[in-house]
Amino acid sequence: MTETKKATDAHSQVRRTGTLLGGMPYLRFGAGTPLVAIPGLLQNYEPAVGLERMFAAQMLMPLATRHRVLRLTPHAGLDPNAGMADIARDYADALRLEFPGPVDVMGTSTGGSMALQLAADHPDVVQRLILVSAAYAMGPNARKVMRRVAEEVLAGRPRQASREMFRISGDNSPSRLAAGMGWLLGPMMFGRSSPDLITTIRADDAFNLRGRLGEIEAPTLVIGGDRDGFYPPDLFRDTAALIPNGRLILYPGKGHLAASTDPRLMPDVLEFLDGPGAAGRGAAGRAGKRSSSL
After folding, report:
1. pTM of this prediction exceeds 0.85
2. Distance of alpha carbon 262 from alpha carbon 152, whole angstroms
3. Mind listing the pLDDT tens digit for each residue in 165-197?
4. Numbers of helices and strands, H then E, in the chain
């Protein structure tokens, strides 16, 4: 390994934390072109520390040798009536100050809803878009489940809340095994929940961007599992098909959590961003569209 390569790898491991405009907590690491990563549902929007910070960085680290990753969450203390458009506006304001032009954005699960709203409302901010285990709306069963999660959180029952969410997060939904795991992880998942969690769940419950997908200017990659209990496969297919330069990758046999941790995920993301057929912002029409099951 050359000294230059060693220096690059060492730089990619350096993790910095802080806040952007309005107090949006970030975790930054890597080297290369910017990539903003919006994570899935979190119990609060405090800065990532300890194990949370380690796990968050570990999941995104494969991207860090080619991209300067900015993991960015909403600010704490959201207006209780905030919708997805309000959250997206906060992201847009912060990113306009942070970067001189549009950047690549990757959103996972609920973070994908935020990213999709950002691309629709603020096209000047998003260069290319990656949606992981996310679509233009949740399925109807998932909406009911997440309402129960919110009820359990408000009642001070983190184990029950986590059990409800995990029950449809596995490869076979509903899953007693996944529900049991959720029960065990309840205090870690929802033991320090803030009112922002409830605001975000309600915003995602009301989120449906199907009618605006044709407005998305950014080339978009949609990745999901065909056994996702939150987003049935047709939602992934329609999201990719209705975006003018949308692409779809479905992982057979994978549920919500498994798709977002699949070993093929990061290589597929890097291929979309940096591969020979990488889509550019100026790509016209549907020439770049493809749909595949891997």
Report:
1. yes
2. 30
3. 999 998 887 888 889 999 999 999 999 999 999
4. 11, 9
